[in-house]
Fold:
Amino acid sequence: MSIDIKTANIEPVRLTFDHLEARIGKGKSATRYQEAVHDFQMTQNFHYRPTWEPEMELFDVRRTKIQLDDFDALTDPRQYYYGPYTIQRAKQQDNADSNFALIEKRKLFATMSGEWTDKIRRLIVPLRHVEWGANTNNTYLSGYGYGAPFTSAALMHAMDRLGIAQYLTRLALAVNGQDPVILDEGKALWLDDPLWQPLRRLVEDAMVQKDWFELHVLQNLLQDSQLVPLAFVHFDEAVGATGNVAFTLGTEFMREWFNESSRWVDATIKTASSAKPENRQLLNDWVALWWPRVQEAVAPLVLAAFGAEASAVSGALTAALNLRLGKLGLEAVA
Amino acid sequence: MAEKKLGLKEKYQLMTRGLDWETTYQPMDKVFPYDKYEGIKIKDWDKWEDPFRLTMDAYWKYQAEKERKLYAILDSFSQNNGQLNISDARYLTALKIWMQGITPAEYNSHRGFCMVGRQFRGAGARVACQMQALDELRHAQTQIHAFSHYNKHFGGFHQAMHMRDRAWYLSIPKSFFEDAMTAGPFEFVTSISFAFEYVLTNLLFMPFVSGAAYNGDMATTTFGFSAQSDESRHMTLGLEVVKFVLEQHEDNVPIMQRYIDKWFWRGYRLLALVGVMMDYMLPRKVMSWAEAWGIYWEENGTALFNDLARYGIKPPKYHEIATAEKNHITHQAWAVFYTACPATGFHAWLPQEYELDWLSEKYGSTFDRYYRPRFAEFARIEREGGRFYTNRLPLVCQTCQVPDFFTEVDNPMKQSIRQYEWQGMKYNFCSDGCRDIFAHEPEKFCQAYIPPQQIYQGNAGGARTLPEYAAWLKCEFGKDSGEYYTSEDYARWKAMHGGNDTTPSSAAA
Structure:
């Protein structure tokens, strides 16, 4: 049984906008995601060349070597527009808040062994700056990329990285009894400790890359595929094995976020790779170009975290990346 | 170890500051290549006061709450055919122009803030711009969602994304935002955050959101209220930008003064579209353009610039001209829209008797003398079964791209036209303000895409006549454009109301 409610029925004269009808066909309703992203970016009749890059139009497909007939094909499988994005993150922050409250109430870091809190200071806290670099790079993608579906998701990804940097700040303060000196120490490591320099050099080199899709591959696929699971899966498992859950609680956001946002990263790269053989070649070249740099940057951190177990962890990280590359139609790395 | 207690402000500082660093493997000037060429000197980015003071998790939390409420109302609006409750379908012309011109501008603003969110080397400024970039994305997306239901029942919305890059009157907002985005990062934030969002924002929001409220448009009103707290943050950013830059170095003062002069004038010209919305498109009136200008510029603007005087900043050049024009421009603009509406994506009409009386009352010094007789003449033609349409597109100003309807401030019968010659070419302008802007950056403004000229050069799908041009815009006469009272919108609106004409007979809500 259902309850029947009569309302005024007024027949619509059309179901959606012309620009969406051209994409989804006549007589169909568009989703709010489709309305929110498609064809928003202007494509023609630009008035002025940028004073900061006069050789290009304001929005210009030539800012990447990747070629697509329709850059709006780079859609987000999560179908995030502003509403679902903020609502999803708000749920996760609610959860993170409770986790941090529990850490503080039970003083969970106070009961963690010095060996592990030292490792967090040396190997986790400086990642705040890596996340800031990821924020910088994704903001570049959002500003200079092409097509609203991609660039809007890139901005959300950029803000996520700022959020992660802030969660790491909160974690660091919890480790150190809320004394911010731990942040200064972490920054000093980032700037001067030889352990971190290959990674800092990679992050800074990434910041000057002009091709936005290459930067997407370098930052969001290659670098993140190694560093994020290293810190928040493998390292977390090792801390968790000691019986202390503080680190696990404080980093739950990062694990959820990585699994979720990798779907976006993979979908965009797969779309580009399957669109044209030239794109696939280009993507393979970029992976081959940057992979040794990523390895060089991550290896010292794996070694410092895992010692004798380092090669097993490195192997697992590479294997996970290769599984993804295979699904994207790209060649495996060694 | 004893737990340290951190204050809220201190906690916020730790969350946003100190994440950045001075790069050494790549030079800072290569990492941030665009924030010096304007000549603005920043000695200490740490003096930047973060206007939002929001960590990301707080941002997500507050904004998600607003989104939940907004979409609950938008869902209810479409489920219950909320379009039935608007004052009159003439009101939709305001929404159509909004969707065609301002929603794309919100998107451009989003992209511009993404760009400067990458360009500034100061971390605090970057984060503030990134958050505003996300807010502006919100506004573009919530607006298309709010308009989506109207699109199902009325003309003029469905082709908006197609018209946006092409139509002559949409070149006004398009060129405005592209001018800002193609400028350096300091000029961009001064133009959008300060001139537009701080100095002129109430003049934009008042007619749109209050107009929606007065005219029974729940979808737009709800969006507007939901965006209000975002806008307050943006205004704070606008003022912070200007004060920060002025405090950093005295050499910045003349550069900022030029930006303020330029963007006040460009913003004011863009608002001509909004003024005409207030005076002519809202069946229920909120206030007149002249009244709004009096409150939001003459009073509030004067107070603001008194405050900025201590930095050596003067009120924007030509602001007296803008004030002197306040009793004229909306009437002149509506006459253009009335006669050229077959080449647009909206309907126009002659004001009803109650509206003519309202205009006479609000514009005692000008309306009866200069403009009411013009509308009376159009009415005579209509009574005789005609409808006066122009057969050519108006010429537009090379800088602001507004049609050439402006008159001299000391003689409303004389058209205001200025010329400037550059590299052997003559360029036409609506005013001294627009001519000065061109003269300062001729190599930029000579590039402008001027729609009427493009038509004559055959770049509008080969269109030679106004109906051909409208077809190129995907606007169908009677469905999307032309006279309101013979349009399908009007017929459909009457059908929704049992065949009755619901045109209001008074200006009061």
User: Anything to note?
Assistant: Residues 140 and 212 of chain A are 7 Å apart (CA to CA). The first helix of chain A runs from residue 18 to 24. Chain A touches chain B through 87 residues (CB under 8 Å). Chain A has 13 helices and no strands.
